[in-house]
Amino acid sequence: MSAQIRSRRRLGALVVTSSLVFAGVAAFVARPAAAASADVVITEVYGGGGNSGAPYTNDFIELTNNSSAAVDVSGWSVQYASSTGTTWQVTRLTGSIAPGAAYLVQEGAGAGNGAPMPTPDVSGTIMMAAGAGKVALVTTQTALACGSACHADPSVRDYVGYGTAANDSETAPTGTLSNTTSAARIDPTKDTDNNGADFAVGNPSPGTLTSTPTEPPVDAKIHDIQGAAHLSPLNGKVAENVTGVVTAKTTNGFWFQDPQPDNDPVTSEGLFVFTSSAPTVSVGDAVTVKGTVAEFRPGGSGGTDNLTTTELTNPTITVTGTAAVPAPTIVGPGGRVPPSTVIDDDSNGDVETTSTAFDPANDGLDFWESLEGMWLGIDQPEVTGPTSSFRELSVVPAGSGVRTVRGGILLQKTDSNPERVLLDDVLTPIPDAKTGDKLAGVVTGVLDYSFGNFKFLPTVTPTVIDGGVQRETTQKSSPLQVSVATFNVENLDPSDGDAKFDGLAQAVVKNLAAPDILGLEEVQDNDGATNSGTTAANVTLDMLVAAIQKAGGPKYAYRQIDPVNNMEGGEPGGNIRVAFMYRTDKPVKFVDRPGGGSTVATTITTDRFGRPHLSSSPGRVDPGNQAAWAATRVPLAGEFTWHGQTLFVVVNHFSSKGGDDPLWGRTQPPVQVTAAKRHLQAQAVRGFADQIFAKDKGANVIVLGDLNDFDWSETADILVGSGTTALIDMPRTLPLKERYSYVFEGNSQILDQILISKNLQPASTYDVVHMNAEFPDQISDHDPQVVRVIPLPSWVR
Hints:
Layout: E1 19-21, E2 40-46, E3 58-65, E4 71-72, E5 77-82, E6 89-92, E7 96-97, E8 102-109, E9 122-123, E10 133-138, E11 156-162, E12 182-185, H1 195-198, E13 199-202, E14 218-219, H2 222-226, E15 238-250, E16 253-257, E17 270-274, E18 285-296, E19 309-322, E20 329-330, E21 349-350, H3 351-354, H4 364-369, E22 375-379, E23 382-383, E24 393-396, E25 409-410, E26 421-423, E27 438-439, E28 442-450, E29 453-458, E30 464-465, E31 482-492, H5 497-511, E32 517-523, H6 538-550, E33 556-559, E34 577-583, E35 588-590, E36 604-606, E37 612-614, E38 619-620, H7 626-629, E39 636-642, E40 645-653, E41 667-668, H8 675-695, E42 701-706, H9 714-720, E43 727-729, E44 742-744, E45 747-749, E46 752-757, E47 765-768, E48 785-789
Parallel strand pairs: 1-19, 8-9, 14-15, 17-19, 20-22, 25-45, 26-29, 31-32, 40-42
Antiparallel strand pairs: 2-3, 2-12, 3-8, 4-7, 5-6, 5-10, 10-11, 12-13, 15-16, 15-18, 16-17, 18-19, 21-41, 22-28, 23-24, 24-26, 27-30, 28-29, 31-48, 32-34, 33-34, 35-39, 36-37, 38-39, 39-40, 42-46, 43-46, 44-45, 47-48
Helix pairs in contact: 5-6, 8-9
């Protein structure tokens, strides 16, 4: 199972107020305010510290000295009251603030989320409300007693009512804040005594002045703002007279595009304008925009490996008329053809700072960046993976990459398929589609970025053309062959209900032809994710056995070992584990040998003829190896016989790739931080196989399961080993276009594998049964696979 977390584009985003100007008329609301401060002002207020999604652990208030001399604030205080409250909490200040310097006051912490704060100048313990409240800079350290009119109190040097619910402010309160946003003074040197006009709601930035107001606005075109790089050359500057036509809009902003592009295809002609609330412009409006150029990194504190998107914030928008939306820039044949193999090859770390070239012709990362925000079209895009639960759909232009036999696109060691892009449902619903389908006509939309991927956002729901791909079934084994399958059943537990169990049963009986031995991954305990201390999974497995019989299949028995509670990763409380099922109506027999346990390692013994056996069957492989198996499923070994011949099977579920850098992330080349642990796991399992081969070089051994790594990976190489006892990695025996069992973000890839000892290969057949990974209606996110072998006696080998 691939664990992903998703939210919408602007969760935790920069939120700013906008001023829309039409026909040269601007509306405003005035009310009495106190005199503007000539020296120290409040420049930022944040009350969401430590809460869910918060970028920082603590609330804070930031001050700035705008005078030409140091200001001694000893004896001063910052004070806080709730949005409608009259009781003030006090944090005493000390020291002085140098001319032009910021002064950071750290306040209380929430639930511990977010990054640590920069070193504050003073610390308090006030727990400020995230959305709305009142903050005062006071020249005494006595709590205010001025009711609901404290902005005018003589001891108040500066005052901020934040959030529309605040009942007191200078003229008008700021916009409403959240766990992920603060109110920051747009120009730290200006105080007009209007909180609503002076402050913008955006990303918290403790210890940093929010702007540099000494530079005048810059006249710019969209391509000047986008530039030939991942970061705008005008980042942080105010750009004005930026013209274009509105191409699409969303709930908190709009995209617009210059209908008169420059002659440089590496500079995008499209740009997002962030208005924080629903924009009042319409598609087809000709607009002139003034705003601050910003680089927005989606995901807040949890998205540090994401690229940024360039945008205009705090905009002033003038509608000058209407105009035709520019013709879409075509991606693919007849238009701009994306690179075919390389995502990035000229960075070493942070692509925003270490890239030696911006090369859209060669690097997919730069190619899509050069189209950021633009109005695009893809002619009959081809679907390479199913519509996900996040309503994302991977497509490529026609003629792309090494395609699978069923229309997917194959992930390879030297080709991550940079021509892929994900359709997302930000602007319109995305239909269900499967691998091998096409979308009709030219699909148009704007290009965005979030969650480690470039996102193509259509404005009209595409029409799906059925590609005819059907679920596969495998052939039955011959009477001499024992069929051994692996199947990740995706967090199976009784709460999944009859539909899940019946679907898995149909898959076992019909698609897998009722294999003799079945290695299962992601079996959960009897109450699933309920964290009750229960570790037994007999109810889960009994329900699957019964469902298979109900589906017309044979009677299966099962063997497994309950793990130590909450020690093997997966869904908390679920006690995920691997297990064996085997048919009771065939000549396959499970050799039960007592002594196994969750923390007991099975070893290799020999009988009086020197033949190897498991000390306990079922038994766990090296469970004391915490470096390999901490928070991971420990492999299960089983000893079987088939027509009297011994067969050793090890079922595995290695550590997931969760935590690795995304292919389209800020770090290039991506770092697979999880790989080292899988290498240790592969070494442990390979070592166990070597113990068997040390007793009998011709032993019948099968290693299978969800290895969470590719057929060309070092993990697989370690398991294969070398020499006369090397295992045969069955996915590597398939033609290239058939090597996949999983589809992630449109890339077809091997994660599940079966490896067999060499003596089993000559009479073997092998099949990845494509029945799940390519379809939106999955019973599991993995395709099962099966190998059919004939275990032979030693004298024949």
